[in-house]
Structure formats: C-alpha cells, structure tokens
Amino acid sequence: MPPRRSRPPRSGALTDLPPLKIIKKIVLLQLSFYACATSLILFTCLVTGTAFSPSLIFSWDSLRGDTTLGWILGLVWMLNSFLCVIFLLIIVSRSKLVPDFTLTTHSIHVVIVALYTRSVPTNLLWWSLQFASSALMTFIGIWACQYRELKPISFGGLGGSSSTANTADSNSQPGDPSSQDPEVGDANKESESGHQFLSISRGRGRGRNRDASDDYEMVTMKDVEEGVV
C-alpha cells in the first residue's frame, strides 16, 4: 500500500509560534493594553477634575449611559483600542494572528473585571463597548499588519545593474571615436570579452582546482594583452 499522506498543519498561532513565545506576547500585549488605558483615563480625570481610582479601569459599574463620565470613559476605551493597534503591529506583526490576540486580550479583561467586582457584568453598554472595541482593534490591526507585510522591498543589486547599463549607454554616444572607427570598436569588444573570460576562469579555478588557477589566469591575461595590442 502507498504511504498515507499526512495533512498539512493548520494555520494558526500554535503552528507559527511556540507556546512560551505565545504566552510572552499575550502578557506584553495585556500589559500594554492596561498601561495605555491607565494613561488615558488618568489624563481624563485630571482634565475633568474627577478623582482617579482603579474602579474606573476594572469595574463595569463606572461605565454608565446616564452620566457624562460614563460616556467619556466609553470614548476613552475606544481610543485605547485604536492606539493598541500600534502594540499589535510591534508585538504580533502577523495579520492572521491579530484576531486571536485581540480576542484573548478582551477575554482576559472580562475575567479580570469579573474577579475585581466579584460579579458577572450585567451592563449592556459595557458589553457593547467590548464588542465594538474588539472589532475596531481587529480590523485596524489586520489592515496595519497587511500593509506592512505587502510593502515592496527594494534590492540594491537591481539598482546597481540598471545604473551600470545607463552609464554604458551614455558612454556610447554618436561623437565617441570608438563608435565611428570599426577597428577601435572591435578592439574594445575583444578586450571586454577577454576580461569576461578572465573573470569566469577565476571563478572556476577557485571552486575546482586552486593550484592550476594561477596558470590559467596568467595565460588569459597574456592573451588579453595581445588582443588589445
């Protein structure tokens, strides 16, 4: 019986990154998420003259639709999700892994809020904010990572070859005596072919027989000199 073909590995975080690296990235992204949110909420409290407390971050009671502070906190959390795209771009850097890390970050946030308040969130506005924040962070994060992945790469060798070709074309102008005199042109072609053969013989001598490479090089250089003269 022919050997059974194994299925290709499924694309995902576990096949692209080792478990320890995944955990490290999750911790870094979660800390960046809370650090950015703390900075924004602290700045909002200083501007509005409100006392800062950890409940503004880890409690779902503070996000209410009947107070001005509640709506401001909602806008701050949406701005936090928008800024966390930068951390996704730096820490994750893969467009297909962005949804996994985004949903993991918000799921951990839900667990931390439930443990902090010792109750499951029952505020509809708070849950709507979590879904909106996850969607915003996912779509903009995928777009940013894809834009970085599809960015064209410039190679220095292509630019150098094109510049060399342009230089050769510019040197062969109608007023050049080598282009008008056929004998001078033939001599230049012979010298160029000799130099090319010299470079080829050097490359072969290095790879196959280093002892005989010097002899071939001396003979080739003599032939080139006679051809030019």
From TrEMBL:
Alphabetic keyword roster: Golgi apparatus, Membrane, Protein transport, Transmembrane, Transmembrane helix, Transport
Membrane-spanning residues: 31-57, 69-90, 97-118, 124-145
Pfam families (alphabetical): SYS1 (PF09801)
Keyword Transport: yes
Subcellular location as annotated: Golgi apparatus membrane
Swiss-Prot/TrEMBL GO biological process terms: Golgi to endosome transport; Golgi to plasma membrane protein transport; protein localization to Golgi apparatus
Low complexity bias (residue ranges): 162-172
Bilayer disposition of the protein: Multi-pass membrane protein
Chain segments carrying region Disordered: 162-229
Biased composition (Basic and acidic residues): 220-229
GO cellular component, one term: cytosol
Domain of life: Eukaryota
Family in the record: Belongs to the SYS1 family.
Protein name according to UniProt: Uncharacterized protein
Taxonomic placement: Eukaryota, Fungi, Dikarya, Ascomycota, Pezizomycotina
